[in-house]
Specification:
Elements: E1 4-9, H1 14-25, E2 30-37, E3 45-48, E4 51-57, E5 68-71, H2 75-87, E6 91-94, E7 123-125, H3 129-145, E8 147-156, H4 163-177, E9 196-197, H5 212-225, E10 231-238, E11 245-253, H6 259-267, E12 272-274, H7 286-289, E13 295-302, E14 309-316, H8 320-334
Parallel strand pairs: 1-2, 1-5, 2-4, 5-6, 6-7, 8-10, 12-13
Antiparallel strand pairs: 3-4, 8-11, 9-10, 11-14, 13-14
Helix pairs in contact: 1-8, 3-5, 3-8
Protein backbone atom coordinates (compact mmCIF):
# COMPACT_ATOMS: atom_id res chain seq x y z
CA UNK A 1 0.00 0.00 0.00
CA UNK A 2 1.39 3.39 -0.97
CA UNK A 3 2.20 5.56 2.01
CA UNK A 4 0.36 8.85 2.27
CA UNK A 5 1.32 12.44 2.89
CA UNK A 6 -0.89 13.40 5.82
CA UNK A 7 -1.58 16.90 7.11
CA UNK A 8 -2.96 17.58 10.59
CA UNK A 9 -4.59 21.01 10.71
CA UNK A 10 -4.72 22.30 14.28
CA UNK A 11 -1.89 19.99 15.24
CA UNK A 12 -0.97 21.94 18.37
CA UNK A 13 -4.44 21.59 19.94
CA UNK A 14 -5.64 18.83 22.26
CA UNK A 15 -7.31 16.81 19.49
CA UNK A 16 -4.47 17.50 17.05
CA UNK A 17 -1.99 16.01 19.51
CA UNK A 18 -4.22 12.94 19.83
CA UNK A 19 -4.42 12.57 16.05
CA UNK A 20 -0.65 12.44 15.78
CA UNK A 21 -0.41 9.87 18.56
CA UNK A 22 -3.13 7.67 17.04
CA UNK A 23 -1.63 7.79 13.54
CA UNK A 24 1.62 6.56 15.05
CA UNK A 25 0.09 3.99 17.40
CA UNK A 26 -2.09 2.44 14.69
CA UNK A 27 0.79 2.41 12.18
CA UNK A 28 -1.08 4.44 9.60
CA UNK A 29 0.99 4.41 6.38
CA UNK A 30 2.42 7.92 6.64
CA UNK A 31 5.10 8.85 4.12
CA UNK A 32 5.36 12.35 5.58
CA UNK A 33 3.44 14.26 8.22
CA UNK A 34 2.68 17.98 8.00
CA UNK A 35 1.76 19.73 11.24
CA UNK A 36 -0.24 22.85 10.40
CA UNK A 37 -1.40 25.58 12.76
CA UNK A 38 -1.72 29.34 13.08
CA UNK A 39 1.19 31.81 13.10
CA UNK A 40 1.36 31.84 16.89
CA UNK A 41 2.53 28.19 16.81
CA UNK A 42 5.40 28.89 14.41
CA UNK A 43 8.65 27.59 15.87
CA UNK A 44 7.04 24.77 17.82
CA UNK A 45 7.94 21.14 17.17
CA UNK A 46 5.75 18.10 17.72
CA UNK A 47 6.87 14.50 18.27
CA UNK A 48 6.01 11.89 15.63
CA UNK A 49 7.68 8.50 15.15
CA UNK A 50 10.73 9.48 17.17
CA UNK A 51 11.30 12.75 15.36
CA UNK A 52 10.52 16.39 16.12
CA UNK A 53 8.31 17.77 13.33
CA UNK A 54 8.30 21.57 12.90
CA UNK A 55 4.90 23.24 12.87
CA UNK A 56 4.10 25.00 9.59
CA UNK A 57 1.77 27.97 9.22
CA UNK A 58 -1.52 27.07 7.58
CA UNK A 59 -2.14 28.92 4.33
CA UNK A 60 -3.62 28.44 0.84
CA UNK A 61 -0.50 26.61 -0.36
CA UNK A 62 -0.30 24.04 2.44
CA UNK A 63 -1.99 21.16 0.58
CA UNK A 64 -0.23 20.91 -2.77
CA UNK A 65 1.25 17.48 -2.03
CA UNK A 66 -1.18 16.22 0.65
CA UNK A 67 -3.20 13.01 0.25
CA UNK A 68 -5.25 13.17 3.47
CA UNK A 69 -5.91 16.25 5.63
CA UNK A 70 -7.22 15.78 9.15
CA UNK A 71 -8.81 19.03 10.37
CA UNK A 72 -9.32 19.99 14.01
CA UNK A 73 -9.03 23.76 14.03
CA UNK A 74 -12.57 25.10 14.37
CA UNK A 75 -15.46 25.67 11.99
CA UNK A 76 -14.22 28.94 10.52
CA UNK A 77 -10.87 27.46 9.56
CA UNK A 78 -12.57 24.41 8.07
CA UNK A 79 -15.01 26.46 6.04
CA UNK A 80 -12.14 28.43 4.52
CA UNK A 81 -9.45 25.79 4.04
CA UNK A 82 -11.27 22.46 3.56
CA UNK A 83 -12.41 23.38 0.01
CA UNK A 84 -8.88 24.59 -0.78
CA UNK A 85 -7.41 21.29 0.43
CA UNK A 86 -9.98 19.25 -1.49
CA UNK A 87 -9.35 21.26 -4.67
CA UNK A 88 -5.63 20.52 -4.31
CA UNK A 89 -6.38 16.80 -4.34
CA UNK A 90 -6.48 15.97 -0.62
CA UNK A 91 -9.31 14.13 1.06
CA UNK A 92 -10.39 16.23 4.04
CA UNK A 93 -11.72 14.63 7.24
CA UNK A 94 -13.07 17.49 9.32
CA UNK A 95 -13.66 17.36 13.06
CA UNK A 96 -15.59 20.65 13.31
CA UNK A 97 -19.33 21.21 12.90
CA UNK A 98 -18.82 23.18 9.67
CA UNK A 99 -19.78 20.44 7.19
CA UNK A 100 -21.76 17.92 9.23
CA UNK A 101 -25.22 18.78 8.00
CA UNK A 102 -24.22 19.61 4.42
CA UNK A 103 -26.27 17.17 2.29
CA UNK A 104 -23.31 16.66 -0.03
CA UNK A 105 -20.89 15.77 2.78
CA UNK A 106 -21.02 12.32 4.41
CA UNK A 107 -21.12 12.26 8.22
CA UNK A 108 -19.38 9.06 9.19
CA UNK A 109 -18.80 6.69 12.09
CA UNK A 110 -17.02 3.67 10.56
CA UNK A 111 -18.77 1.10 12.79
CA UNK A 112 -22.16 2.55 11.83
CA UNK A 113 -22.28 3.88 8.24
CA UNK A 114 -19.00 3.25 6.36
CA UNK A 115 -20.96 2.97 3.11
CA UNK A 116 -21.54 6.75 3.24
CA UNK A 117 -17.86 7.29 2.36
CA UNK A 118 -18.53 6.25 -1.22
CA UNK A 119 -20.40 9.51 -1.75
CA UNK A 120 -17.71 11.94 -0.64
CA UNK A 121 -16.56 14.77 -2.91
CA UNK A 122 -13.30 15.48 -1.13
CA UNK A 123 -14.72 16.42 2.29
CA UNK A 124 -15.90 14.02 5.01
CA UNK A 125 -17.35 15.18 8.32
CA UNK A 126 -16.57 13.71 11.72
CA UNK A 127 -19.58 13.86 14.10
CA UNK A 128 -19.92 15.65 17.40
CA UNK A 129 -18.16 13.69 20.16
CA UNK A 130 -21.37 12.96 22.08
CA UNK A 131 -23.18 11.82 18.95
CA UNK A 132 -20.38 9.43 17.99
CA UNK A 133 -20.46 7.37 21.16
CA UNK A 134 -24.26 7.38 21.10
CA UNK A 135 -24.69 6.01 17.57
CA UNK A 136 -22.08 3.28 18.03
CA UNK A 137 -24.36 1.84 20.72
CA UNK A 138 -27.64 2.60 18.92
CA UNK A 139 -26.71 0.98 15.59
CA UNK A 140 -27.15 -2.71 16.56
CA UNK A 141 -30.38 -1.92 18.42
CA UNK A 142 -31.78 0.00 15.46
CA UNK A 143 -30.91 -2.82 13.06
CA UNK A 144 -32.60 -5.39 15.28
CA UNK A 145 -35.71 -3.57 16.47
CA UNK A 146 -35.99 -0.14 14.71
CA UNK A 147 -35.60 2.77 17.09
CA UNK A 148 -38.58 5.10 17.26
CA UNK A 149 -37.48 7.61 19.93
CA UNK A 150 -34.30 8.56 21.79
CA UNK A 151 -34.00 10.63 24.97
CA UNK A 152 -30.37 11.39 25.83
CA UNK A 153 -28.80 13.45 28.60
CA UNK A 154 -25.06 14.03 28.45
CA UNK A 155 -22.49 14.67 31.16
CA UNK A 156 -19.60 16.14 29.17
CA UNK A 157 -16.00 16.60 30.28
CA UNK A 158 -14.26 19.95 29.98
CA UNK A 159 -11.53 18.59 27.67
CA UNK A 160 -14.04 18.92 24.84
CA UNK A 161 -13.55 22.68 25.11
CA UNK A 162 -9.76 22.51 24.77
CA UNK A 163 -6.62 23.06 26.80
CA UNK A 164 -7.83 26.35 28.26
CA UNK A 165 -10.91 24.63 29.66
CA UNK A 166 -8.82 21.91 31.31
CA UNK A 167 -6.64 24.59 32.90
CA UNK A 168 -9.71 26.53 34.03
CA UNK A 169 -11.21 23.56 35.86
CA UNK A 170 -7.89 22.81 37.55
CA UNK A 171 -7.14 26.38 38.62
CA UNK A 172 -10.72 27.20 39.60
CA UNK A 173 -10.90 24.07 41.78
CA UNK A 174 -7.68 25.08 43.53
CA UNK A 175 -8.97 28.60 44.10
CA UNK A 176 -12.29 27.47 45.57
CA UNK A 177 -10.64 24.95 47.87
CA UNK A 178 -8.35 27.74 49.10
CA UNK A 179 -11.30 30.15 49.56
CA UNK A 180 -9.95 32.41 46.79
CA UNK A 181 -11.87 34.24 44.07
CA UNK A 182 -11.65 33.03 40.50
CA UNK A 183 -13.17 34.65 37.42
CA UNK A 184 -13.97 32.09 34.69
CA UNK A 185 -12.81 32.92 31.16
CA UNK A 186 -13.74 29.82 29.15
CA UNK A 187 -17.14 28.98 30.61
CA UNK A 188 -19.96 31.43 31.31
CA UNK A 189 -20.27 30.17 34.90
CA UNK A 190 -18.18 28.36 37.50
CA UNK A 191 -17.47 24.81 36.32
CA UNK A 192 -15.58 23.55 39.36
CA UNK A 193 -17.99 21.67 41.66
CA UNK A 194 -20.85 22.67 39.36
CA UNK A 195 -22.84 21.54 36.30
CA UNK A 196 -23.83 23.96 33.52
CA UNK A 197 -25.57 23.69 30.13
CA UNK A 198 -23.12 22.52 27.46
CA UNK A 199 -22.95 25.44 25.05
CA UNK A 200 -20.07 25.55 22.54
CA UNK A 201 -17.98 28.71 22.79
CA UNK A 202 -19.48 31.63 20.87
CA UNK A 203 -22.80 29.81 20.62
CA UNK A 204 -25.94 30.21 22.70
CA UNK A 205 -29.44 28.86 23.05
CA UNK A 206 -31.39 28.49 19.82
CA UNK A 207 -34.84 29.95 19.21
CA UNK A 208 -36.44 26.68 20.37
CA UNK A 209 -34.63 26.96 23.76
CA UNK A 210 -32.33 24.02 22.95
CA UNK A 211 -28.58 24.62 22.87
CA UNK A 212 -26.72 24.22 19.60
CA UNK A 213 -24.97 21.19 21.13
CA UNK A 214 -28.34 19.56 21.77
CA UNK A 215 -29.53 20.22 18.24
CA UNK A 216 -26.28 18.74 16.88
CA UNK A 217 -27.12 15.48 18.62
CA UNK A 218 -30.69 15.53 17.31
CA UNK A 219 -29.76 16.19 13.67
CA UNK A 220 -26.53 14.22 13.45
CA UNK A 221 -28.03 11.07 14.97
CA UNK A 222 -30.74 10.97 12.31
CA UNK A 223 -28.26 11.60 9.49
CA UNK A 224 -25.78 8.93 10.59
CA UNK A 225 -28.44 6.29 11.20
CA UNK A 226 -30.07 7.26 7.89
CA UNK A 227 -33.55 7.53 9.38
CA UNK A 228 -35.27 10.91 9.66
CA UNK A 229 -38.33 9.28 11.28
CA UNK A 230 -36.48 8.74 14.58
CA UNK A 231 -37.57 11.23 17.23
CA UNK A 232 -34.63 12.54 19.25
CA UNK A 233 -34.44 14.92 22.20
CA UNK A 234 -31.29 15.84 24.09
CA UNK A 235 -30.10 17.71 27.17
CA UNK A 236 -26.36 18.38 27.16
CA UNK A 237 -24.53 19.28 30.38
CA UNK A 238 -20.93 20.23 31.07
CA UNK A 239 -19.64 18.62 34.28
CA UNK A 240 -16.43 19.09 36.32
CA UNK A 241 -14.67 16.06 34.82
CA UNK A 242 -11.39 16.44 32.93
CA UNK A 243 -11.94 13.77 30.25
CA UNK A 244 -14.59 11.22 29.33
CA UNK A 245 -18.18 11.93 28.29
CA UNK A 246 -21.05 10.04 29.92
CA UNK A 247 -24.61 9.70 28.65
CA UNK A 248 -27.92 8.56 30.06
CA UNK A 249 -29.85 7.07 27.14
CA UNK A 250 -33.49 5.99 26.87
CA UNK A 251 -34.42 4.18 23.64
CA UNK A 252 -37.92 3.27 22.50
CA UNK A 253 -38.05 0.57 19.82
CA UNK A 254 -40.75 -0.60 17.45
CA UNK A 255 -40.05 -4.24 18.31
CA UNK A 256 -39.59 -4.94 22.00
CA UNK A 257 -36.08 -5.82 23.11
CA UNK A 258 -35.45 -7.31 26.51
CA UNK A 259 -32.42 -6.15 28.46
CA UNK A 260 -30.81 -9.56 27.87
CA UNK A 261 -31.42 -9.33 24.11
CA UNK A 262 -29.98 -5.81 23.96
CA UNK A 263 -26.97 -6.89 26.00
CA UNK A 264 -26.32 -9.80 23.64
CA UNK A 265 -26.52 -7.52 20.59
CA UNK A 266 -24.16 -4.97 22.12
CA UNK A 267 -21.63 -7.62 23.15
CA UNK A 268 -21.18 -8.43 19.44
CA UNK A 269 -21.07 -4.79 18.27
CA UNK A 270 -17.75 -3.46 16.93
CA UNK A 271 -16.12 -0.83 19.10
CA UNK A 272 -18.47 -1.51 22.03
CA UNK A 273 -17.61 -3.03 25.41
CA UNK A 274 -20.44 -4.10 27.72
CA UNK A 275 -19.72 -3.46 31.42
CA UNK A 276 -22.93 -4.45 33.16
CA UNK A 277 -22.72 -6.13 36.54
CA UNK A 278 -24.21 -3.70 39.07
CA UNK A 279 -24.06 -6.25 41.89
CA UNK A 280 -20.28 -6.18 41.57
CA UNK A 281 -20.24 -2.37 41.15
CA UNK A 282 -19.24 -2.89 37.52
CA UNK A 283 -20.52 -0.30 35.06
CA UNK A 284 -18.93 2.29 32.74
CA UNK A 285 -16.97 5.07 34.42
CA UNK A 286 -15.38 8.09 32.76
CA UNK A 287 -12.09 7.63 34.63
CA UNK A 288 -11.79 4.09 33.26
CA UNK A 289 -12.70 5.09 29.68
CA UNK A 290 -9.92 7.67 29.34
CA UNK A 291 -7.22 6.43 27.00
CA UNK A 292 -9.40 3.59 25.66
CA UNK A 293 -10.55 3.31 22.05
CA UNK A 294 -13.85 1.57 22.82
CA UNK A 295 -17.26 2.91 23.83
CA UNK A 296 -18.53 1.39 27.07
CA UNK A 297 -22.18 0.62 27.85
CA UNK A 298 -23.83 -0.67 31.00
CA UNK A 299 -26.79 -0.36 33.35
CA UNK A 300 -28.86 -1.86 30.52
CA UNK A 301 -32.38 -2.25 31.85
CA UNK A 302 -35.97 -2.27 30.68
CA UNK A 303 -37.81 1.01 31.18
CA UNK A 304 -40.47 0.39 33.87
CA UNK A 305 -42.55 3.28 32.45
CA UNK A 306 -42.78 1.97 28.88
CA UNK A 307 -43.41 -1.53 27.45
CA UNK A 308 -40.87 -1.22 24.63
CA UNK A 309 -38.04 0.96 25.88
CA UNK A 310 -34.59 0.52 27.40
CA UNK A 311 -32.36 2.61 29.64
CA UNK A 312 -28.57 2.49 29.51
CA UNK A 313 -25.40 4.36 30.48
CA UNK A 314 -22.81 5.08 27.75
CA UNK A 315 -19.25 6.33 28.33
CA UNK A 316 -16.33 7.07 26.01
CA UNK A 317 -13.13 9.08 25.82
CA UNK A 318 -14.34 12.21 24.03
CA UNK A 319 -10.89 13.06 22.69
CA UNK A 320 -10.42 9.59 21.20
CA UNK A 321 -13.53 7.89 19.83
CA UNK A 322 -15.33 11.21 20.10
CA UNK A 323 -12.78 13.04 17.96
CA UNK A 324 -9.25 11.99 16.99
CA UNK A 325 -9.73 8.22 16.82
CA UNK A 326 -12.90 8.36 14.73
CA UNK A 327 -11.15 10.76 12.33
CA UNK A 328 -8.22 8.36 11.88
CA UNK A 329 -10.60 5.40 11.55
CA UNK A 330 -12.32 7.20 8.67
CA UNK A 331 -8.92 7.65 7.02
CA UNK A 332 -8.22 3.94 7.53
CA UNK A 333 -11.56 3.09 5.96
CA UNK A 334 -10.62 5.16 2.90
CA UNK A 335 -7.50 3.03 2.45
Amino acid sequence: MREKVVAVVGATGVVGHQMLQILEARKFPVARIKCLASKRSLGKKLPFKGEEVPVEVLDENSFADVDIALFSAGGGTSKKFAPIAAAAGAVVIDNSSAWRMDPDVPLVVPEVNPEALAKHNGIIANPNCSTTQLVVVLKPLHDAAKIRRIVVSTYQAVSGAGIAAIDELREESKAILNNERYTPAVFPHQIAFNCIPQIPQSDAFADNAYTTEEMKMVNETKKILGDQSIRVTATTVRVPVFSGHSESVNVETEKKLTAAEARALLEKAPGVVVEDDPAAQRYPLAVHAVGKYDTFVGRIREDISHPSALDMWVVSDNLLKGAALNTVQIAEQLL
